[in-house]
Write a sequence for this structure.
């Protein structure tokens, strides 16, 4: 099978050793066609009307690694067709000299078809692109009706406005992305999360088990951390299929759709807003504006009733788990799914918000001075200075993305994603663990990693045992979502100067509340020991730190947490009773005849999973494992038996943005320009948009890792740029008829030399933040998502050339910088790591244009334009895309920090000739 891959020709991706790149020029044909028709009519002397129609018909292959051909000679992975239609109608009625009514209706129907290549089940190799494109086919259509009416009434010094806005939103989707079975060579799914861990039973792939040197790992002083590269390569070469994807679609009556048959959904919602505003002209130089807006958003519902959700409050379920763990108790009632939504006469996904009232307040003051005082010179004459300020609340429009994510990834019994449990299969079968099946063909998914579909009909209770698909990693739905909103305030001072110059200084602030943030509702509990008041995270960290210090097992003092909650572990080895070397763990100095305390017994097993402590907890807690013993609360005291991870959007986020904005503007004398500078800071808990999450849209780095401490990753936003400078200009060259130079030109001279203009846009910004991740196999806090790395000392960042000759964000040897213990360390249990604590290089781009205008006659003109984008061909590298190649992971070795892409395309030119009449 590997012989089907082309020969590699680049090393700037993968680990640079086992996995490298093949780059090639690919055809990405694009056809963009847009048609617009507009009609205007004066119906009466007081009524006007317009009608505008739009049609878009685009066929394209996007120039991206997901859409372009997989390899040279392959068809495009995804062919996209955009067929958007829209119509807008407007009617303006001047009822009287003091009252105007403005009505608009709009209908927009975006329609996108993405034609992929997958037609049957498929085996994927982790770390390798598929040998052929295995992309889904999907269809999205979002018809929206929008009715708007505004009335303006002038009464004395007051301008009163009121109106309403009603949107009817339809979200129609058909796709087969979750219609196939699949397999995955995922070393992280094996017992011990790999081949070289201390807990890995003899499997034939761990060099130390056959008398060979150990692979460099997180607990060594090796300068090259090769674990991730080694595990991925072994999984591929040996064809160890450790993870299976069992995806099923059903109708609401329980019938199963066939393999590859797309799931169809039609969600609908209504949004209504109304407002009242009064602009009071107190004096000629002072205007006060008061207003209020009311927003009512309907939770989306599936029109045919193909909609399910938990039959009890999952928000209460999560909160009850949290309260129980603080009291040393476990709380894990089973969750059941049933039909819900308006079409079924049931409750919606979440409750309506009826109190979304948003006040607004603003003022505009144009003070002026008189006489020769400094105050007069500062303010200037009447109209030269303006001071503005305001405050407002703004409610977000949300919901469609949440519903789509839940419907595709979490609505158990309709679209059901099942996978065999992690941490059970072994590559070699030692220690009694079942052996992971081997690769036999790209389209042959081994039955041993496939789970049967759930029974049809509702209510449905997801499985809660290992062998039936319990401990699932899936998507949830918080039924207590609130409407996100922001408080925005600003203050600006504008001063008109001589010769067409204007300066302005502004402060802008924005505080976000109830923002949507992903959180793991089923995260393992941070159980508190009632006797010692110590938490699980505290006790777990003590064990990991002891191992990292090389503490011999017999020297480890008792930790009250383990003695109190795991008394049955006393006298055991890490994986069972004394007497068998197969029951030994990985603690320094352990022995089959050791008479260990409960703390030491847990330490013996724990030492095999340092850096991946959730696997150690899994061993301690799950029925059928319980190594060296379950807690006195019994199995499943920490984990939920149905879901090992249940990520969902919740209204727990907040943000703040503060900015100083300075502006210099000039108009007139043939030169118009704006020069803008912003000094700002944006902070949030996470920056992902509603459609960017763990299951869709490549959502990384912005999920809550520790649900019991959700603000651990609160940091500067992913898009934060401290300094931003931009400028734009239009300069009419002073040559030709009526200009400073050659003002008498006419005829051929004017046609050649006159009428030229230069335009341009300049953008500069400081570097964007980025996060260093640990790589594969490190889950200290959360079962599904890795904690970020913790920085020990700051490396120098910018644009440098690494030993491979490639551009790199770090100065120095990337292997040494990324090696654990030098600049970064792995997070401990309970830690989320550090987010966005490093900065990439800045951004710079200049776009420019040269144009010439010929006035053929009084009503006819010909215009030539030559425009250049990224004029100086500046390669501004993008740190945000490091994660897509894994190059922000400590375990990527020599490719750590290597850039994958620039933020702007290379220099592009375009020419145009326009005739106007």
């Amino acid at each position: 099978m590997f012989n089907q891959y082309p020969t590699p020709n680049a090393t700037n991706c993968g680990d640079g050793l086992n996995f490298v790149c093949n780059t090639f020029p690919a055809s990405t044909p694009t056809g963009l066609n847009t048609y617009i028709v507009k009609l205007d009519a004066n119906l009466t002397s007081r009524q006007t009307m317009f009608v505008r129609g739009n049609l878009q018909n685009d066929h394209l292959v996007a120039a991206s690694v997901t859409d372009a051909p997989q390899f040279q000679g392959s068809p495009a992975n995804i062919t996209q067709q955009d067929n958007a239609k829209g119509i807008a109608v407007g009617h303006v009625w001047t009822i009287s000299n003091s009252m105007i009514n403005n009505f608009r209706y709009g209908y927009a129907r975006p329609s996108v078809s993405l034609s992929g290549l997958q037609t049957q089940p498929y085996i994927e190799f982790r770390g390798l692109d598929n040998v052929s494109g295995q992309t889904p086919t999907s269809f999205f259509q979002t018809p929206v009706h929008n009715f708007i009416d505004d009335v303006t009434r002038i009464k004395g010094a007051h301008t009163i406005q009121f109106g309403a806005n009603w949107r009817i939103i339809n979200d129609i989707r058909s796709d087969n992305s979750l219609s196939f079975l699949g397999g995955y060579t995922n070393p992280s799914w094996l017992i011990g999360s790999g081949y070289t861990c201390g807990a890995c039973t003899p499997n034939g792939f761990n060099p130390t088990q056959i008398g060979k040197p150990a692979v460099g790992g997180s607990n060594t002083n090796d300068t090259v951390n090769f674990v991730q590269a080694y595990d991925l390569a072994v999984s591929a070469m040996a064809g160890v299929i450790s993870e299976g994807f069992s995806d099923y679609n059903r109708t609401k009556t329980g019938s199963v759709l066939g393999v590859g048959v797309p799931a169809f959904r039609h969600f609908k919602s209504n949004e209504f807003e109304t407002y009242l505003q009064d602009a009071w002209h107190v004096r000629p130089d002072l205007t006060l504006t008061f207003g209020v807006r009311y927003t009512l958003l309907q939770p989306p519902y599936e029109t045919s009733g193909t909609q399910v959700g938990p039959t009890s409050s999952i928000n209460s379920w999560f909160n009850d788990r949290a309260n129980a763990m603080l009291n040393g108790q476990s709380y894990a009632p089973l969750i059941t799914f049933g039909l819900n939504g308006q079409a079924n006469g049931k409750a919606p996904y979440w409750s309506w918000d009826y109190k979304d009232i948003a006040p607004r307040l603003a003022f505009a003051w144009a003070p002026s001075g008189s006489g020769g005082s400094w105050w007069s010179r500062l303010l200037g004459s009447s109209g030269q200075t303006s001071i503005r300020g305001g405050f407002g609340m703004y409610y977000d429009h949300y919901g469609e993305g949440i519903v789509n994510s839940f419907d595709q990834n979490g609505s158990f019994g309709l679209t059901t994603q099942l996978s065999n449990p992690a941490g059970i299969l072994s590559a070699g079968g030692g220690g009694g663990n079942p052996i992971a099946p081997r690769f036999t063909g790209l389209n042959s998914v081994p039955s041993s990693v496939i789970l049967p579909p759930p029974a049809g009909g509702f209510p449905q209770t997801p499985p809660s045992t290992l062998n039936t698909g319990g401990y699932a990693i899936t998507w949830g739905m918080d039924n207590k979502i609130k409407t996100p909103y922001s408080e925005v305030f600003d203050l600006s001072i504008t001063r008109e100067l001589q010769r067409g110059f204007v300066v302005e200084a502004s402060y802008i602030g924005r505080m976000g509340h109830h923002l949507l943030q992903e959180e793991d509702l089923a995260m393992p509990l941070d159980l508190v020991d009632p006797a010692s008041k110590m938490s699980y995270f505290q006790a777990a960290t003590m064990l990991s730190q002891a191992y990292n210090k090389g503490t011999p097992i017999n020297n480890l003092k008792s930790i009250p947490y383990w003695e109190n909650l795991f008394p049955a572990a006393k006298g055991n080895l890490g994986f069972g009773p004394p007497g068998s070397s197969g029951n030994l763990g990985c603690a320094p100095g352990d022995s089959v005849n050791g008479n260990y305390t409960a703390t030491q017994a847990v330490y013996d097993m724990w030492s095999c999973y340092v850096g991946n402590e959730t696997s150690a907890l899994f061993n301690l807690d799950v029925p059928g494992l319980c190594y060296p013993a379950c807690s006195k609360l019994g199995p499943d005291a920490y984990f939920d038996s149905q879901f090992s991870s249940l990520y969902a959007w919740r209204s727990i986020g907040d943000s703040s943005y503060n900015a100083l904005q300075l502006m210099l503007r000039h108009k007139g004398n043939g030169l118009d320009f704006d020069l803008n500078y912003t000094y700002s800071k944006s902070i949030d808990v996470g920056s992902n948009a509603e459609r960017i999450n763990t299951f869709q849209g490549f959502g990384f780095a912005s999920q809550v890792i520790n649900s019991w401490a959700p603000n651990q990753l609160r940091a500067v936003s992913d898009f934060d740029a401290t300094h931003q400078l931009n400028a734009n200009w239009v300069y009419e060259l002073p040559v030709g008829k009526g200009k400073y130079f050659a003002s008498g030109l006419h005829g051929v001279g004017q046609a050649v030399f006159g009428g030229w203009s230069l335009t341009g846009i300049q953008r500069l910004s400081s570097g964007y933040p980025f996060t260093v991740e640990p790589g594969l196999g490190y889950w200290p806090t959360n079962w599904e998502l890795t904690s970020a790395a913790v920085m020990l000392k700051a490396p120098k960042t910018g644009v440098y050339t690494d030993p491979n000759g490639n551009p790199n964000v770090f100065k120095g040897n990337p292997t040494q910088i990324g090696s654990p213990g030098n600049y970064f360390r792995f997070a401990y249990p309970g830690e989320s790591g550090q987010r966005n604590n490093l900065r990439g290089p800045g951004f710079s781009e200049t776009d420019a244009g040269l144009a010439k205008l010929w006035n053929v006659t009084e009503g006819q003109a010909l215009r030539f334009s030559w425009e250049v984008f990224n004029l100086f061909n500046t390669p501004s590298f993008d740190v945000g895309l490091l994660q897509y190649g894994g190059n922000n992971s400590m375990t990527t070795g020599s490719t750590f920090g290597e850039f994958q892409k620039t933020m702007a395309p290379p220099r592009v030119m375009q020419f145009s000739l326009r005739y106007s009449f």
Remarks:
- The CA atoms of residues 28 and 369 lie 63 Å apart.
